Amino acid sequence: MRKISLFIATSLDGYIAKPNDDLSFLKLVEKQGEDYGYAAFTNTVDTVMIGRRTYDYVLKEIGPSHYDNGQRDVYVITSTERPQVGRTIFYTGDITELVKRLKSDKGKNIYCDGGAEIINELLKHDLIDNLIISIIPVLLGSGTRLFKDGRPAQILEFIKVKTFETGLTQLHYKRKK
Amino acid sequence: MRKISLFIATSLDGYIAKPNDDLSFLKLVEKQGEDYGYAAFTNTVDTVMIGRRTYDYVLKEIGPSHYDNGQRDVYVITSTERPQVGRTIFYTGDITELVKRLKSDKGKNIYCDGGAEIINELLKHDLIDNLIISIIPVLLGSGTRLFKDGRPAQILEFIKVKTFETGLTQLHYKRKK
Fold it and tell me: With an 8 Å Cβ cutoff, are B139 and A158 in contact?
């Protein structure tokens, strides 16, 4: 069965962005030739789920090639219908239905690329299988939290930790069966 | 100069307790003969700072011997005066003044043993020198957060990570000068 994975960076105090979607803290760990396993990870997936706000943010900041590159199915979770763009589908239905359908399809794994709202919605329904969380050595003090209040408790299985010269620490967990 | 250190356990989603001060998640990593470096750490300190609620909680749950054992100076941060008990002093003044005074005194390091309110107050004033954070492999979903909103950003220096058989991961950072 296909798995859904998170692959996300957070500050030590649990923020994935400073206020106003400010991601400049990621520059602290930018290093030429170091992608922190991102390419290897994305090779394990052929489908991306992403919230509409995050999608629009990436479209504006990085450009359409990041998602709409024909390499992967991209499901943008939104309340507003939009026509499909290449392999990018704007999905307005129930998210748990989508996940159940995708998991029962054949294919590589599924990457949940945020934002926090969609991650927390999936966690509420115990639908995340793998968590790969990169901790940036900084306290941001305020911003968008990776984990929101009001989810059920969930025991994880620790898989491994990787450390990097920049001080980034990458924690790998999976859902306990 | 003496340093102030945190040594605290949190869930992966950043909670140090479930609602109603429920610390039962710590049982997930209990293992005979494994103290996760606590004894070695406490040997480096001779002074403890602790919030009044946490102090009362420990007094009720563990008993007076944990703090009032004559081994260390204990400063309980409180708004209500109480008479000193052995080396346990109830401190009602300004916390930054206390820290400045303690740091300029001779001695071993200072252990800030929580709770979240006092930790965040110290972080607001950039007064924590070392952070030793043990991540328990669980998502609690709600409870008392280690880090509260509304602190200044602060870059940290990553020192090391230790992993344990139980899945606990211990991250060591220090304040960047």
Answer: no
